[in-house]
Here is the input.
Amino acid sequence: MIDSSEPEIPLFGGDVTEGIVRVGDTVRRPVKRNAAFVHALLQHLEAVGFDGAPRYLGVDAAGREVLTFIEGELAGRPHPAWIGDEDRLASIGRLLRRYDDATVGFVAPAEAAFVPPLHPEGLPPAPELPEEVIAHLDITPENLIFRDGTAHALIDFDLARPGARVDELYNAMLWWAPLNDPGDLDPGLRGLDAPRRCRILADAYGMSEADRLRLVEVAFMRTRRSWHLMKHHAEVEGGGWRRMWDEGVGDVITRREAWLERNGSAVEAALTAA
Ligand SMILES: Nc1ncnc2c1ncn2[C@@H]1O[C@H](COP(=O)(O)OP(=O)(O)OP(=O)(O)O)[C@@H](O)[C@H]1O
Ligand SMILES: [Mg+2]
Here is the structure.
């Protein structure tokens, strides 16, 4: 039901979007850039029978997008004790593979075409990669819903765009291995064997040999780029981006790059070991 008299219950968890509420069994979110593309994508996922994403139900009287609310557990902060569980990790790899495969062949209608963001000056280059899937690219603990101990659904498709499988896997590894300086991790994610966890994700996804070999280089390039992009978003869009920048996300990214310098070869060895 799009227009409803049921109460609005605020939802928290993400960093950027304000004003997300639950109404009955729906979620209402302010529409974003590329909303038409995301709505077409969600409709495609429904049409091909992929059940691991919210359904797009339309726009309500307040101009917000209406999505189905998906019941389950989130791993958002404070992280639950099971966040480092390796069986759950493998289930993320499997869900992500099913999702990416479900997007193959999706072409948005002309009026809903993906509009690439404008690039700030001085942005380091992106890796040259094929557009194989519609990558989700925001596989954070806050954006995954678990049921019965396995990853059940992805939410928050704001960053989805045509992209490469290796970028999708890098993003999942970034959050779930995770690929960050231990000092920047929440307690539940500290002390995990990140290279081993990258391998678990890669195997569960069925990552190609070529992608395993280029993962670390992609990680470096994406890390350098993300520092510039976060700064740019903070300056131009403000809001949650500004807050994250002021809280030091730029330094977190710089320490991530140093962590990759120290640990990249171990990650690559784990990904490619027989
Ligand atoms: N369809 C849904 N089903 C269940 N819970 C949802 C759904 N959509 C959002 N939520 C809840 O609301 C929180 C925030 O929603 P969402 O991830 O869409 O926005 P956000 O993370 O704030 O956005 P952004 O990533 O742009 O900052 C989620 O972490 C989750 O707890
Ligand atoms: Mg989110």
Residues 13-14, 142-143, 156 surround magnesium ion (ligand 2) (CB under 6 Å).
